[in-house]
Amino acid sequence: MAGILIFAETDAGAILPNFWEQVAAARTLAPQLGSVSVAALGWQIKTDEALRSGAEAVYVLEDERLTEPWPDAHLSALESLCHELHPAMIVMPRTTLGMEVAARLAFRLGGALAQDAMTLQLADDALTITRPVAGGAASATVRLNRAPWIVVPRSGAFTPAEPGAEASAKVVSVQPSISDAALKTRCVSRARQEGETISLERARVIISGGRGLDGPEPFQLLHRIADAIGGAVGASRPPCDSGWVPTSYQIGLTGKMVSPEVYIAVGISGATQHTTGCSSARTIVAINTDKDAPIFRMATYGVVGDWKEVLPAFHAALADRG
Ligand SMILES: Cc1cc2nc3c(=O)[nH]c(=O)nc-3n(C[C@H](O)[C@H](O)[C@H](O)COP(=O)(O)OP(=O)(O)OC[C@H]3O[C@@H](n4cnc5c(N)ncnc54)[C@H](O)[C@@H]3O)c2cc1C
Fold first, then answer.
1. What pLDDT does 172 receive?
2. Which residues line ligand 1 (CB under 6 A)?
3. DSSP code of residue 251
4. Which residues contact 153 (CB under 8 A, 6 or more apart)?
5. N- or C-end of the chain: fewer Cβ atoms within 10 A?
6. Is residue 188 part of a domain?
7. What is the number of structural domains in the chain?
8. Range of the domain at 252
């Protein structure tokens, strides 16, 4: 077993932006584990970026059944490739597909799974990782003795690598091996959630509202502020459960994991189920009437105050700035 394989997930043929964080994670162990390769799975894949990732080879696995994020099909194709290449480490994207395939692939290959890895260290034939626990308030150190190691880097933990100027990787076309017997589930239909302007996972600034907003109307103000600063609007679970905003806004354990540069939490108490989804943000700003709200323990900046006073003033200041 040697080398590192990066699973590049695609959407409509384009490799997802998480790929560059995976490349950065792989590079930390490349000196010890050897060559880095990429497995791009999808249909009509645009490989240009992967070719400039510094990888030695880009394995291109194209099949119409890989157009959708269908775990069974991706697992089957990736497992066969791993049996051929025997990588010591496989780096997966932190997406719904990536996390599901990672767990199942670890089981199939008899390896060890590292979800949400923030650091990677190799010594004495074991991989040691750190991962957040308790909603990002603490971190656990986990030693994985058994290769292959299937690693899902934590969003925001590795600074994305930059594409190189040269397309240096060789392209290897592989006919994916997807057995019908492996396809136990089927995607019946897909629908895009309405209401998202900028994707929360890609937004550099997010302003999120919680139960403290007390209804759907204040989210209009959050949207106006988000528009003024080129950000996106998110929410804690209660506004989604109450139908104030679509469920696609939810950030947290059962919602989205985000890692913006700035995360503004308005009327959100800071329950671990929420903060686990935003603890990777570089700067957290909290606005809350309760000075003892747990969100202030992790906030970089805090305003103890009523959003009804703070937000209109903030919006006006943004408007003055032009
Ligand atoms: C299995 C499980 C999964 C979960 N998954 C998620 C998840 O993915 N995401 C998530 O968010 N939650 C999740 N939850 C729910 C979570 O435990 C909390 O209940 C939730 O995050 C609380 O949301 P909140 O902070 O908006 O509301 P609250 O905890 O009620 O806090 C509201 C805050 O608003 C403040 N406030 C009130 N009025 C004002 C005002 N005028 N101005 C400023 N501040 C004000 C209050 O002081 C308070 O701190 C999950 C729970 C479970 C059990």
1. 97
2. 210-212, 236-238, 250-255, 267-269, 271, 273-274, 277, 287-290, 293, 306-308
3. B
4. 21, 22, 24, 25, 91, 94, 116, 117, 118
5. C
6. no
7. 2
8. 205-321
- 237 inside domain: yes
Contacts of residue 143, Cβ cutoff 8 Å, sequence gap at least 6 = 126, 127, 128
Whole-model pTM over 0.90: no
- Going by alpha carbons, the residue nearest to atom 36 of ligand 1 is 212
Please indicate, yes or no, whether residues 15 and 144 belong to a single structural domain of this protein: yes
CA distances, 183 to each of 64, 187, 241 (Å)? 14, 11, 33
Task: State the pLDDT at residue 197.
Answer: 61
Pairing of strands 14-15, 4-11: antiparallel
Residues 302 and 241 in one domain: yes
If you take atom 37 of ligand 1, which residue's CA is the nearest one? 212
Buried b (16+ CB within 10 A) or exposed e, 220-233: ebbbebbeeeebbb
> Which CATH number is 59's domain given?
3.40.50.620
Residue 244 lies in a domain: yes
User: How many angstroms does the Cα of residue 270 sit away from the middle of ligand 1?
Assistant: 6
Residues of the chain with pLDDT under 50: none
3-state secondary structure at position 79: helix
CA of 264 to the centre of ligand 1 (A): 14
CA of 233 to the centre of ligand 1 (A): 16
**Is residue 200, in this structure, part of any structural domain at all?**
no
pLDDT at 280: 84
Q: Which of 273, 276, 307 to mutate for ligand 1's pocket (most ligand atoms within 8 Å of CB)?
A: 273
